[in-house]
Design a protein that fits this description.
Layout (H helix, E strand, L loop, with lengths): L1 H16 L3 H5 L4 H6 L2 H11 L8 E10 L2 E9 L2 E12 L2 E14 L4
Length: 111
C-alpha cells in the first residue's frame, strides 16, 4: 500500500518538475478531476504549491490507511521546508491524490 502511495506522489512530482500540469493532474482522484479543471489545477499549483515545480527533495513520513482512503505526511525541501498531508483514495487505476494541505512551513537550514 505505502509503495503505491509513494509511487503516485513521486510520479506526480516528476510531471510537476517537467512543467507538465496535464500529466500531473492524471494522478489526481476522479472526484478531484471532475471538480477542478485543467486551468484551475495549474492555477492552484502555481499560486499555492509553486515549491513543487522546482524538483524539490521529497521525504515520505507517517502513513495511515482506512479502507480505500489513506493519508501520508510528506516533507518537501525546496528553498524552504514544507510539511504536507496528502489525502489519497484507492481507485481502479491505483492510489490517486484527492488533496494536499500544507501543515507546516519553515526556512531550510544550510549546512
Amino acid at each position: 500500500m505505502r509503495a503505491g502511495i509513494e509511487d503516485t506522489i513521486g510520479s506526480q512530482q516528476a510531471f510537476f518538475a517537467q512543467g507538465d500540469f496535464a500529466g500531473a493532474r492524471m494522478f489526481a482522484s476522479g472526484g478531484f478531476q471532475s471538480s477542478v479543471g485543467e486551468a484551475d489545477f495549474q492555477d492552484i499549483i502555481e499560486s499555492q504549491y509553486a515549491f513543487l515545480l522546482d524538483d524539490p527533495t521529497v521525504e515520505f513520513l507517517d502513513c495511515a490507511q482506512v479502507e480505500e482512503y489513506a493519508q501520508i505526511q510528506v516533507r518537501v525541501t525546496a528553498t524552504d521546508v514544507y510539511d504536507l498531508q496528502y489525502r489519497l483514495v484507492r481507485e481502479p487505476a491505483g492510489w490517486r491524490i484527492d488533496g494536499a494541505t500544507i501543515t507546516d512551513t519553515r526556512e531550510a537550514v544550510s549546512t
